[in-house]
Amino acid sequence: MIKAMLQEPLGEKKVRCNVCVHRCLISPGKRGICQVRENQDGVLYSYADELISITSLDPVEKKPFYHVLPGSEAFSWAGYGCNMHCDWCQNHSISQSNQLKSVNSPISADEIVAGAMVVGAGLISATYTEPTVFFEVLFDVGQRTHDFNIINSWVTNGTITPEALQLAGKYLHAANVDLKGANDVLLKKHTGVNPSYVMSIIRLMKEMGIWVEVTTLVIPGLNDSTEDLETIAEFIADVDFQMPWHVSAYHPAFRHQAPPTSGATILKAIEIGQKKGLKYIYAGNIRTEKGNNTYCASCKTQLVSRRGYNIELKMDGGVCPTCGLSIPGIYNSQRLK
Ligand code: SF4
User: Fold this and answer.
1) Residues with CB under 6 A from ligand 1
2) For residues 67, 73, 75 and 80, what is the CA-based torsion angle, rounded to 10 degrees?
3) I want to staple 31 with a disulfide (CB 3.0 to 4.6 A). Which of 38, 43, 207, 278 is the partner?
4) CATH architecture of 50-335
């Protein structure tokens, strides 16, 4: 347990946590919504250092990042806990727990970075659950990746506060942000957070020079209307029409057992994105030649072939070999800021 960053002491020993959008006001003896941060006699402590226990070497495409070192491997890390409680969570066994307890052999920031170096991973990725709630470790990992010139990335629901992002984002190179929909009322009901908030964080990341890819898990009846998909695509195009958009098919999980998303709906989303001017749109959780490969936005040459996690790179250094167009993204660590 460590003293929490970004805490704001208030009267009667209450403390506000300013790490994520919830800005929990926490009374002595209580924890925040994420269950990771606890007020002990007027001081907020974080269990982040005791809850990180999961590491895995994944294809970078699994995060998904399609414009960050395509074909490389990401040293992935995660802890137990989350600040959302989505009914359809694919990782609910680690993200959701009424009574989080410390794990037996927690992994430190030093060990995460050392692990990535030992296996020669192209990047480090905070993923599976919401990394923001483990802010102290997230910050430390970022600082160390900076020291070793390794790419640091987050897979996040975009609920971090602007001040927390300004602090840890100095060491962040790439983020895949989960934009769950466009309907504030509906999404607030299901996730506790307005998508318009997440959109503001995507804009801030872009302003900070962080490479951003957006993922939307398309769920029938929740966010698959033409209007919703158009709103999301318009938003991304307004921020940067070259920002990749991953439209992923939902499959029943956890407490949400509605039928899975059809391939036709995913193809509809891709067409909507194209009409709104997006240049890089990808299908997730279904295989389609149209939606899995990367093509040059100018001459349409195939630049990356993806069959599952079999990746064939047909360009060098992010440049189209046919027309010379520079493909946005991170293609070698020399481009780290
Ligand atoms: S990080 Fe946890 S305690 Fe802090 S505001 Fe978010 S949910 Fe609340």
Assistant:
1) 17, 19-20, 22-24, 32-34, 36-37, 83, 133
2) 70
3) 38
4) Alpha-Beta Barrel (3.20)
